[in-house]
Amino acid sequence: MLFHQVVSEGLAHYSYLIASGTEAAVIDPRRDCDIYLQIAHNNGLSIRHIFETHRNEDYVTGSTALREACGAEIWHGRQMDFAFGKPVQEGDRFTIGSLEIMVLETPGHTEESISLVVRDLAVTPDPFMVFCGDTLFAGEIGRTDFYGPDRNVEMAGKIFDSITRKILTLGDGVIICPAHGPGSICGGTIAEHPFTTAGYERQSNPRLKMGRDAFIAHRVTESPYTPHYFRRMETWNRNGPPRTPADLFPRPLSAEALETAIRDGCQVVDIRSPTSFAGGHIRGSISLWRRGISGYAGFVLDYEKPVALVDDFNTGIDEVARQFSRMGFDSITGILSGGFGSWASAGKEIALLPSCTAPQLAERLKREPEFLLDVRHGETWRSYGHIPGAHHIYAGEVLQHLDKIPKDRTVITYCDAGFKGSLAASLLSRNGYRDVTNLLGGIAAWTQAGFETGP
Predict the structure, then answer these.
(1) What is the extent of the structural domain holding 375?
(2) Where among 315, 345, 375 does a domain terminate?
């Protein structure tokens, strides 16, 4: 047997290729699907089946692109009317080499969610692995809020039953292969484990240890973030996404060409560090660090407008472009040739973002009442404290709550370590806020310097 877990950083997405003999299957492929073709080519494999464990919300599926490239059939749950592929139901079986893949219907995250139980019939009829999509994660259970509050109790009950009455009954030694790892917006506190087992989750998963009634009661009190781009992903992943561009690499733009693009409405995304952005940037650009693209681009960028990138040295841009493509951003106009330095060398206008250290902020707070804006995740705000007097708006939702942020006061943004704070500060500056400062190092620097935090 051949097994590959493909990790898509940023999205914290896990997809898989499994094979036996000369045949292979791919589970939950990402949009840039060349990696599965390369694995198959290197190992003399033919990809026969493509499985979608559920309709994804956080990224563009690669199933149709992969089918076009290799001719494999796509399979998905029967409870949704997809415009591509074929439906499966409980008990359906597929064979690749000596491996048997059996379908379990495991609703809860979505109605059509399925899990795929794998047996190696050349060894034993007992299952040894299950691909469970967004139903069960390491240390966490998938979201159940996508059908609205009126159905949250129902879906929470369904997902708990799918796990306890189906997945966990496969045996404690069965390997759990989830579709996401820590950092995914599709789960809460996912553990730092690429895999887990049914037995380990039974004993240690805090959601499962609650029991069914307590889990449901807790689940309906949660308020996970739902970025607006989820609806676009849901539509594309049900009806079939647009064809992936043949060349994802953004073309180089001179300072003059970028200036023209900005006048025509192009969004400029600065992928440098917060300190580099603070020291000088193109006015109106958005500070979005590389590892934050998958987590925040869908919150803060307009899909209908082109995007141009600004970096220091323009290295590793291929992976940056792939991150945008996985979220459906195909309108990357280009990247500033020569990096930000070329903009400065061309004599173009440069804007600054004021920043401060933790001791400087402490002194400022003694003198005047600054508007402190904590842009961390709500769970982090509630669980780990905050700077006294701070207001909370999640970085991804700042644009939806500008009415709560005064323009006539100094606004100081902060987060965990300074990255989301820089993002929020750039969004405020882009929207007419003229007195914005970002706390360098975020609350980590604040606590390290010995300053107090409030509950």
Answers:
(1) 355-448
(2) 345
CB 46 within 8 A of CB 97: no
Element (H, E) at 48: strand 46-51
Q: What is the pLDDT of residues 67-102, one digit of tens each?
A: 999 999 999 999 999 999 999 999 999 999 999 999
264 and 340 inside one domain: yes
Rounded to a whole number of angstroms, the CA Rg of the chain reads 24
Q: pLDDT tens digits for 276-313? A: 999 999 999 999 999 999 999 999 999 999 999 999 99
**How far is Cα 157 from Cα 220, in angstroms, rounded to an integer?**
11
Q: Look at residue 412 and tell me if it is in a domain.
A: yes
- 198: which residues sit within 8 A by CB, 6+ positions away? 130, 167, 168, 170, 171, 172, 173, 174, 176
* Other CB atoms within 10 Å distance of the CB of residue 217: 13
- CATH code, domain carrying 384: 3.40.250.10
Evaluate whether residue 268 is within a structural domain: yes
DSSP annotation of 163? I
pTM over 0.90: yes
